[in-house]
Amino acid sequence: MKKDLPDNIVEGVDVAVVLESESPEAKVWNVYLINEKNVDLQNVLVSSKGYGLKDGREVKTTTLRHSLGDISAQSAVKIEAIDTAVFGLTNEYWVSYYENGVMFDKKYIFLPESIVDENLIKAPLIGKPGVMIGGLS
After folding, report:
1. For a 10 Å CB count at each end of the chain, is N or C smaller?
2. What integer pLDDT is reported at residue 136 of this predicted model?
3. Tell me: domain 2-133, CATH 1.10.3470, correct?
4. CA of 75: how far to CAs of 9, 72, 105, 107, 110, in Å?
């Protein structure tokens, strides 16, 4: 039963949409998984997709699956590039990993129009501006 399962609360694992570079013609954005923990994460898997309304009709992007392997303590790993065309959609990242033999998972959701300049902060361990969702359940 669900009540018998441990809580396995995710803390110190973040997802950030980071502004890599900017020119008058375009901005380059990438999505990162940030491990702020002092322990390694093993067998990290990420599923990403976008969905919502665009021009009055329902839109869904392809679901992408990424195997990131092991991620060292206090490090960040690029998940994927992201196009500004999907910033108006809900962008969802479902992260699962093992820590000391115990499985953890968390869904990170960037709401439509949340990836904007007003929400930029300095992404930890990357040092570039980004919009971040922290791993506090």
Report:
1. N
2. 54
3. no
4. 20, 6, 18, 20, 22
State the greatest distance between any 2 C-alpha atoms of the chain, in Å, as a whole number.
Answer: 55
pLDDT tens digit sequence for 24-80: 888 999 999 999 999 999 999 999 999 999 888 999 999 999 999 999 999 999 999
Provide the token pair at 58: 């329902």
Distances (CA, A) of 49 to 93, 107, 111, 122, 124: 7, 11, 12, 24, 24
- Per domain, the residue ranges of the chain are 2-133
pTM of the predicted model, to two decimals? 0.91
Question: Which amino acid belongs to residue 46?
Answer: V
User: Interior CA angle at 41 toward 38 and 46, to 5°?
Assistant: 135
